[in-house]
Amino acid sequence: MPRSLNTSLVRLKSSGIRRINALAAQHPGCIALALGEPEFDTPQEIRDEVTRALQRGETHYPPNNGTPFLRRSISEYMSAQGFDYAPDNVIVTDGATEALHATLLAMLEPNDEVIIPTPAFGLYESIVRVNHAFPVFLDTARADFQIDEDALRDRVTPATKAIVICSPNNPTGCIFNAASLDAVARVAAETGIYVICDDVYNRLVYTDGYERFALRHPELREQTVVVDSFSKPWAMTGWRIGWLAADPSLAVQIAKAHQYMVSSAVSFEMPAAAVALSVDPAPMLETYRARRARVLAALEKMGLSVVEPAGAFYVFPSIKGTGLTSEQFCARAIEEAGVGLVPGSCFGSEGYVRLSYCVSDEDLDEGLRRLDRFVAGL
Ligand SMILES: Cc1ncc(COP(=O)(O)O)c(C=O)c1O
């Protein structure tokens, strides 16, 4: 009889988002407002550069941490955003997904704990668990998706290694205010825990007042990792390329994790990724902004309350008034109304559903009409 596999991995459930998409796929004509993926194609000038790189024969192993040109370009791009990360402090990764894996692999030992403010992107919990560590959830729903300092302090133990913060957030679209960032900073300064900033939606912000943790708290540089990605701002989800930036003391170890996991990102994508950095995502942002306004108006009409999102392309309305669990709500919305949403339970927050508005205008409008009829009939 074969011996057991990694039990922490075996116990992981497959992503709830994929489950809902599979259910939606069984209902022809169902409109899925469920995926976190821009419907746009990657801008043409970025795609053209891949073709040129292939013609130039850039098909060999690149340096593990990325080509010097791309790392310099990222360092300059981040410096225009106010950061101070030299090219040596930048690691080009296989998307933010691998950046998060490499970062946590570098940090975690068995039985460590990682604080995850919820609702949260499910990947964090999975990575923590496969590293034989434990997620410790911090419910932010009661504080309008902000961080309550006392609640955070209550979660810290001698085993706490890190906190993962995501702003703008998936699934709420909310950004952490200054008080939340300062609360994290105070706790991190006192306890030495690492702060992993998942900033993949930083270019998709609709309001003033967005601040990034690493810029507001440079004094915590040795404890901070900034994760970013080409996926969302430049509609490059299928390319699987992103990056992280960290102080050398951390970057050296994360680079080892990255090297042993994937060796590097894809060589011939790197010149194109450098082109992407100079492409302004504003036209896509304006499209999302207009859709966000339509979604908020439609939810108000349906009587579903929502904390207005400041970024990303999601809203996370409360469905508590319907008396249904989020799984029941989403399953029935697919079966009875032909519209797919993601249950809040997939993000660790019952009583909510996630609606993505990164779909075509027609699909969005029809999806909202169906949702309206469904909610009215409950
Ligand atoms: C918050 C968050 N972080 C990371 C990722 C992964 O991004 P990437 O495509 O760069 O791996 C996603 C993708 O949906 C996300 O929503």
TrEMBL record:
Keyword Transferase (UniProt): yes
Family listed: Belongs to the class-I pyridoxal-phosphate-dependent aminotransferase family.
Cofactor(s) this protein requires: pyridoxal 5'-phosphate
Pfam families: Aminotran_1_2
Species in which this protein is naturally found: Collinsella acetigenes
Record GO biological process: amino acid metabolic process
EC assignment: 2.6.1.-
KW Ubl conjugation (keyword) present: no
Name this polypeptide is given: Aminotransferase
